[in-house]
Amino acid sequence: MANPNPSPSTRFGPGNPSRGRQRAARDKISTAFLEALNEAFHEPNDTGGSKGLDAIKKVRDEDPATFARILAALQPKQLEISDEDPISNLTDEQLEAYCAELERQIAERDAAARATPVIAIAPSSRRVN
At what angle are helices 51-62 and 25-41 packed, to 10 degrees? Predict the structure, then answer.
Protein backbone atom coordinates (compact mmCIF):
# COMPACT_ATOMS: atom_id res chain seq x y z
CA MET A 1 0.00 0.00 0.00
CA ALA A 2 1.29 3.44 -0.89
CA ASN A 3 2.24 5.83 1.88
CA PRO A 4 -0.72 8.24 2.33
CA ASN A 5 1.55 10.96 3.75
CA PRO A 6 4.73 11.02 1.67
CA SER A 7 7.51 13.30 2.73
CA PRO A 8 7.41 16.70 0.97
CA SER A 9 11.08 16.23 0.09
CA THR A 10 10.21 13.25 -2.11
CA ARG A 11 7.09 14.64 -3.79
CA PHE A 12 7.03 15.55 -7.44
CA GLY A 13 6.24 19.13 -8.16
CA PRO A 14 7.43 22.51 -9.34
CA GLY A 15 9.23 23.22 -6.06
CA ASN A 16 11.19 19.99 -6.24
CA PRO A 17 12.81 19.69 -9.67
CA SER A 18 15.29 17.03 -8.57
CA ARG A 19 12.66 14.32 -8.42
CA GLY A 20 11.31 12.48 -11.42
CA ARG A 21 12.32 12.65 -15.02
CA GLN A 22 13.79 15.95 -16.06
CA ARG A 23 12.07 18.02 -18.73
CA ALA A 24 12.98 16.83 -22.26
CA ALA A 25 15.12 13.98 -20.87
CA ARG A 26 13.65 11.49 -23.36
CA ASP A 27 14.28 13.90 -26.24
CA LYS A 28 17.90 14.33 -25.13
CA ILE A 29 18.41 10.56 -24.93
CA SER A 30 16.76 10.00 -28.31
CA THR A 31 18.84 12.76 -29.88
CA ALA A 32 22.06 11.42 -28.36
CA PHE A 33 21.23 7.89 -29.55
CA LEU A 34 20.44 9.01 -33.09
CA GLU A 35 23.63 11.07 -33.26
CA ALA A 36 25.70 8.09 -32.09
CA LEU A 37 23.92 5.83 -34.59
CA ASN A 38 24.63 8.34 -37.37
CA GLU A 39 28.32 8.47 -36.43
CA ALA A 40 28.54 4.66 -36.38
CA PHE A 41 26.79 4.43 -39.75
CA HIS A 42 29.15 6.91 -41.39
CA GLU A 43 32.32 5.45 -39.86
CA PRO A 44 34.69 4.91 -42.79
CA ASN A 45 35.68 1.41 -43.85
CA ASP A 46 38.97 0.31 -45.42
CA THR A 47 37.84 1.01 -49.00
CA GLY A 48 36.64 4.57 -48.44
CA GLY A 49 32.93 3.74 -48.09
CA SER A 50 30.99 3.57 -44.85
CA LYS A 51 30.59 0.67 -42.45
CA GLY A 52 26.84 1.35 -42.28
CA LEU A 53 26.41 0.76 -46.02
CA ASP A 54 28.56 -2.36 -45.73
CA ALA A 55 26.26 -3.67 -42.99
CA ILE A 56 23.14 -3.01 -45.06
CA LYS A 57 24.65 -4.80 -48.08
CA LYS A 58 25.70 -7.75 -45.90
CA VAL A 59 22.18 -8.15 -44.47
CA ARG A 60 20.71 -7.79 -47.97
CA ASP A 61 22.99 -10.50 -49.38
CA GLU A 62 23.14 -12.94 -46.44
CA ASP A 63 19.69 -12.60 -44.85
CA PRO A 64 17.07 -11.29 -47.31
CA ALA A 65 14.21 -12.03 -44.88
CA THR A 66 15.66 -9.69 -42.25
CA PHE A 67 16.32 -7.10 -44.96
CA ALA A 68 12.66 -7.31 -46.01
CA ARG A 69 11.52 -6.96 -42.35
CA ILE A 70 13.67 -3.84 -41.96
CA LEU A 71 12.17 -2.33 -45.11
CA ALA A 72 8.64 -3.18 -43.94
CA ALA A 73 9.30 -1.62 -40.52
CA LEU A 74 10.33 1.65 -42.18
CA GLN A 75 7.09 1.93 -44.15
CA PRO A 76 4.15 3.91 -42.76
CA LYS A 77 1.76 1.77 -40.72
CA GLN A 78 -1.31 3.30 -42.31
CA LEU A 79 -1.74 4.96 -45.66
CA GLU A 80 -4.88 6.86 -46.51
CA ILE A 81 -5.82 6.93 -50.18
CA SER A 82 -8.73 8.95 -51.46
CA ASP A 83 -10.09 8.94 -54.97
CA GLU A 84 -11.65 12.36 -54.42
CA ASP A 85 -10.54 15.01 -56.89
CA PRO A 86 -9.14 18.00 -54.95
CA ILE A 87 -10.29 20.41 -57.65
CA SER A 88 -13.93 19.38 -57.10
CA ASN A 89 -13.80 20.96 -53.61
CA LEU A 90 -12.81 24.40 -54.92
CA THR A 91 -15.26 27.28 -54.99
CA ASP A 92 -15.92 29.04 -58.29
CA GLU A 93 -13.57 31.87 -57.30
CA GLN A 94 -10.80 29.46 -56.34
CA LEU A 95 -11.27 27.52 -59.57
CA GLU A 96 -11.07 30.70 -61.64
CA ALA A 97 -7.88 31.73 -59.82
CA TYR A 98 -6.43 28.25 -60.37
CA CYS A 99 -7.19 28.37 -64.10
CA ALA A 100 -5.77 31.88 -64.39
CA GLU A 101 -2.55 30.75 -62.70
CA LEU A 102 -2.26 27.78 -65.07
CA GLU A 103 -2.79 30.04 -68.08
CA ARG A 104 -0.11 32.44 -66.76
CA GLN A 105 2.36 29.59 -66.32
CA ILE A 106 1.66 28.27 -69.82
CA ALA A 107 2.12 31.75 -71.30
CA GLU A 108 5.47 32.14 -69.45
CA ARG A 109 6.63 28.75 -70.69
CA ASP A 110 5.66 29.57 -74.26
CA ALA A 111 7.37 32.98 -74.09
CA ALA A 112 10.54 31.36 -72.75
CA ALA A 113 10.44 28.78 -75.53
CA ARG A 114 10.10 31.52 -78.17
CA ALA A 115 12.99 33.48 -76.63
CA THR A 116 15.35 30.50 -76.69
CA PRO A 117 17.44 30.54 -79.85
CA VAL A 118 17.37 27.43 -81.95
CA ILE A 119 20.74 26.32 -83.25
CA ALA A 120 20.59 24.11 -86.29
CA ILE A 121 23.57 21.91 -86.95
CA ALA A 122 23.92 20.64 -90.48
CA PRO A 123 25.08 17.06 -90.78
CA SER A 124 28.68 16.75 -91.80
CA SER A 125 29.59 15.02 -95.02
CA ARG A 126 32.89 13.91 -93.47
CA ARG A 127 33.03 10.48 -91.97
CA VAL A 128 34.57 10.27 -88.52
CA ASN A 129 36.25 7.05 -87.48
Answer: 80
CB-based burial, 25-54: b 16+ in 10 Å, e otherwise: eeeeeeeeeeeeeeeeeeeeeeeeeeebee
pTM check: above 0.70: no
pLDDT tens digits, one per residue of 11-41: 666 665 555 556 677 788 899 999 999 999 9
CA distance 129 to 24: 70
Q: How far is CA 107 from the centre of its chain?
A: 34
Rg of the chain (C-alpha set):
31
Q: Give the residue extent of every domain in the chain.
A: 24-74
